[in-house]
Amino acid sequence: MDTYVAKVTQKGQITLPAKLRKEEGWNAGSELIFKKDPQSNNVELSKKVNLYDTNFGNYDFQADLKTDKELAEPSSLQGNEGWGFESE
Fold first, then answer.
1. Could you read off the pLDDT tens digit of each residue along the chain, which spans 88 residues?
2. Are 85 and 70 in contact (CB under 8 A)?
3. Which secondary structure element, helix H or strand E, spans residue 80, and what is its range?
4. Closest CA to 26 of 51, 47, 9
5. C-alpha span between 15 and 34 (Å, rounded)
6. How far apart are alpha carbons 32 and 26 in whole angstroms?
7. Can you point out the beta strands (E) in the chain?
8. If you ran DSSP here, which 8-state letter would residue 35 be given?
9. How far apart are CA 46 and CA 87, in angstroms?
10. How many CB atoms lie within 10 A of CB 59?
């Protein structure tokens, strides 16, 4: 098990060790999750997974739901073209 040390500033900030950031793929803007075990007082640190991360960048589906009318107001017929549902 590797051990890393980070110092907490007066503002409650820490700098994550560069080697750990690279190993874990934590880049600027990455959101990290801290989980504390109340029995042992150990803290587990992991990266928040965004299922909409793509090779082309981060796709913010929630934001598009608010701005894209087709996503925000789905039609009961939308997407059924060619499946025999056109007359419904």
1. 889 999 999 999 999 999 999 998 888 888 899 999 999 999 998 888 766 665 566 666 677 777 777 766 655 555 556 566 555 5
2. no
3. none
4. 47
5. 15
6. 8
7. 32-36, 43-47, 53-54, 57-58
8. E
9. 50
10. 13
- This prediction has a pTM of 0.51
Which one-letter DSSP state was computed for residue 71? H
Q: Using alpha carbons only, what angle is made at residue 67 by residues 61 and 69, rounded to the nearest 5 degrees?
A: 100
In the chain, domain spans = 18-72
Q: What region, left, alpha or beta, does residue 43 occupy, with left being phi > 0 and alpha being psi -120 to 50 degrees? A: beta
**In angstroms, rounded to a whole number, what is the distance separating the alpha carbons of residues 53 and 85?**
33
**Residues 75, 88: Cα–Cα separation, whole Å:** 12
What's the one-letter identity of residue 22?
K
Structure tokens at 86: 């056109």
AA identity, residue 61: F
Identity of the amino acid at 10: Q
- Please report which residue ranges of 7-79 form alpha helices under DSSP H: 18-24, 61-67, 69-72
